[in-house]
C-alpha cells in the first residue's frame, strides 16, 4: 500500500489517507480480503498521530470499503462496483452543477462549456 501525504494540500491528512486507500481498492491494487497495515504501523510509517490513522480507517469502514475484525485488523471489503460508480456519478453531478452556476455568472455559453470540457479531457486546456 502506497500513501503519500501532501502537507500543502487543503484536504486534512485523514481524508488524504482515506481517498488514497479508496482509489487503491477501486483500482484493484488492494484486493478483497487483503489486510491493511495496523493503525499503529500506518501512523508510524506516515509520521502522523494514531487518531488520524484511526479516523481514516473508521471512515473507510463506514463507507463500506474495509471491515474491521476485533483483534485481527482491518481488511478490504468486497465492493459493489455499481454502488461505487453511483457514488462517483453523484459527486460529478454536484461538481457539474457548480460549474453550470459559475458559467452562468460569467456568461459562458453551453457550447463554450462543452468545448472547455473536451479540451480539458484531451489535455489541451490550460
From TrEMBL:
PROSITE patterns: HTH_GNTR (PS50949). Residues 11-79 form the HTH gntR-type domain. One of its GO terms (molecular function) is DNA-binding transcription factor activity. Keywords: Coiled coil, DNA-binding, Transcription, Transcription regulation. SMART domains: HTH_GNTR (SM00345). It comes from the Bacteria. Residues 43-112 form a coiled coil. This is GntR family transcriptional regulator. It comes from Parvimonas micra.
